[in-house]
Description:
alpha/beta
Amino acid sequence: xxxxxxPAGERSVAATPYSLGLNNDQLETARLGLLANGFxxxxxxxxxxxxxxxxxxxxxxxxxxxxxxxxxxxxxAMVAEIVEDCDALITAYGH
Length: 95
């Protein structure tokens, strides 16, 4: 006999739905961060992302960040800067 074990645990608190992203009416004043994580080509990939965003939302302000090393966490200072300076963030890795 085959018995299926569902590995999902029981929730101790109810899930709280939320939405992510920017609405179209926010794009003229939005500050969008692009964070490269240090893997090869993550910066080049975000260059292409930035070009595409600029075509679709030319007034959006783009801020660039580069963690520099894929094996380390973003520093507390970098995270604080991103939180202060950005309304939304896209992170990317290369390869």
